[in-house]
Write a structure and sequence with these properties.
Blueprint (H helix, E strand, L loop, with lengths): L2 E5 L5 H17 L4 E8 L2 E9 L12 E2 L4 H14 L23 H5 L25 H5 L16 H15 L3 H10 L19 E3 L6 E3 L9 H4 L2 E2 L1 H13 L7 H7 L13 E3 L4 E5 L2 E10 L2 E8 L4 E7 L7 H15 L15 H6 L1 E5 L2 E7 L5 E5 L17 E5 L5 E3 L8 E6 L5 E6 L2 E4 L27
Antiparallel strand pairs: 1-3, 2-3, 2-12, 4-7, 5-6, 8-9, 9-10, 10-11, 11-12, 13-14, 13-20, 14-15, 15-16, 16-17, 17-18, 18-19, 19-20
Helix pairs in contact: 1-10, 2-5, 2-6
InterPro entries: AmpC-like, Beta-lactam-related, Beta-lactam/transpept-like, DUF7586
GO molecular function, one term: hydrolase activity
Keywords: Hydrolase
Length: 476
């Protein structure tokens, strides 16, 4: 009989059963010696479950598995901390801080987003199954031909690129990567079960024969300089804590704004892979209409995945001790969907403003860009949002130019700066007439008027003085 555990009663019974069923199917069909998963909601683990092929050896949320490339997200956090402290610039060349690598013309941002054009793997023996002592220097990690593509032109996943970033952290901090990670990330986030070396209880890594139900033990090597690309061991519980951090940030480690920057797409995905992308050290994916951020990972004997849906406030982790087989990336994404769809989060209560800002109230309501109707709204945080007016005649929301909606934040000079959407970073100005009344809105040179081509407003190109009219048939 298969071993099985499930814990936590934060979710409804039907949801818990659906989660455990998905884990059971993944373990059985993926032929994994064991598989453990967990779900977090609003930063707190609310469910965990596991299946095992060995009676009496069922893992739980405190059992360590190797996290593989999820390690890269931790390394990226360390790099962003250096940037936020003013010690490095993401657009600066690597050579400025870590000279002599031979790839110093690439920028730190390009390394973080896998757009530096470096090779995918380290030369020499298979680095994931051999000790790091075989690659004692960055020259051994990068090899004689480390650059495979022009920098900044395409996404090309590079494990050596993150080894370089780890060495950058060590150089700037003057301390080993592992020590910096423990001091600056793991301890502040109370991730005491995430380590560079396995600490019991931990799973053993196995390879499962492709055509027979037999297994082979996999080696667990210390990766040396390649450690920042995939060394860490962690647990489902610890990775749930980390998922909460990736959603909301933590001032002890990295601000919410910097974490959001990590989740922002940095380069276009490879051709034919438009359901995914990459930010600064984080993978991005679309699953079931949801935007997910996190990372997958694999090393011989282990596969891992962490996904968080910021909009839903739900994250999931899936870990298995098999070189291949269980699709843990899809499993974690599906666990997010199960919870988000069965138990959607409650919206924050609507609350009225405590005070009315009359100049802002004056500019709310419908506006027209040419003949396209928009509406400008004021929220309780004193922010503005400009969006296409739904339900209007001829409205084509989210299609073409009329779908360009954005939120705006006020600036000290009275202007507004776009936060997202088409107008992110653009300036919105309220243009007034000499008597103080509002003439139009100026948004990056686009003019928005209260009426479609308002003859009384300053519309570029002017408005025909004869006004709107019918169209007569041309004479034959």
């Amino acid at each position: 009989m298969w071993g099985m555990t499930s814990s936590c009663d934060e979710l409804l019974p039907g949801t818990r059963r659906a989660l455990l069923h998905r884990v059971a199917v993944a373990q059985a069909e993926g032929r994994a010696p064991s598989l453990v998963a967990a779900v977090a909601r609003d930063g707190r683990m609310v469910w965990s479950g596991a299946r095992s092929g060995a009676d009496g050896q069922v893992p739980d949320a405190d059992t360590q598995y190797r996290a593989g490339s999820i390690t890269k997200v931790f390394t990226a956090v360390l790099v962003l901390r250096l940037r936020d402290e003013g010690l490095i610039g993401l657009d600066h060349p690597l050579e400025k801080y870590l000279p002599g690598t031979g790839v110093g013309e690439v920028t730190i941002a390009q390394l973080l987003s896998h757009s530096a054009g470096l090779s995918a793997e380290s030369p020499g023996p298979w680095w994931e199954r051999t000790p790091g002592t075989l690659r004692p220097t960055l020259g051994d990690v990068l090899g004689d031909r480390p650059v495979r593509h022009p920098a900044g032109r395409r996404h090309h996943y590079s494990n050596p690129g993150f080894a370089v970033l780890g060495s950058l952290v060590e150089s700037v901090r003057d301390a080993p990567w592992e020590e910096v990670l423990r001091r600056e990330v793991l301890e502040p986030l109370a991730m005491d079960r995430t380590t560079a070396q396995p600490v019991a209880p931990h799973a053993e890594g196995w390879a499962v024969h492709p055509w027979a139900d037999v297994v082979l033990p996999e080696p667990a090597e210390d990766l040396g300089l390649m450690a920042p690309a995939g060394q860490l061991w962690s647990t489902a519980a610890d990775l749930c804590r980390f998922a909460g951090f990736l959603a909301d940030g933590d001032e002890k480690v990295l601000s919410a704004a910097s974490v959001a920057e990590m989740r922002t797409p940095s380069v276009p995905p490879e051709t034919g892979q438009w359901d995914g992308g990459y930010g600064l050290g984080t993978q991005l994916a679309r699953h079931g209409g949801r935007s997910l951020a996190g990372h997958t990972g694999s090393l011989p004997g282990f596969v891992a995945s962490l996904w968080v849906s910021v909009d839903d406030g739900v994250a999931a982790v899936a870990l298995a001790n098999a070189t291949s087989g269980p699709p843990v990336g899809a499993v974690a994404a599906e666990l997010v969907s199960i919870v988000a769809e069965a138990e959607p989060r409650f919206p924050e209560p609507w609350r009225p403003l405590t005070a009315a800002d009359q100049p802002l109230l004056e500019v709310t309501g419908p506006w027209f860009w040419g003949t396209h109707p928009f509406v400008l709204t004021l929220s309780t945080d004193q922010g503005l949002e400009l969006a296409p007016l739904e339900g209007s005649r001829g409205s084509r929301r989210n299609r073409g130019s009329s779908g360009r909606g954005s939120r705006f934040v006020g600036q000290p000079d009275g202007t507004w700066t776009g936060l997202d959407g088409y107008h992110a970073g653009e300036t919105l100005r309220v243009v007034r007439r000499p008597d103080g009344s509002v003439d139009h809105l100026d948004l990056g040179s686009f003019v928005f008027t209260r009426e479609a081509y308002d003859p009384g407003a300053d519309v570029p190109g002017g408005v025909d003085e004869k006004g709107w009219r019918g169209m007569t048939s041309p004479e034959g």
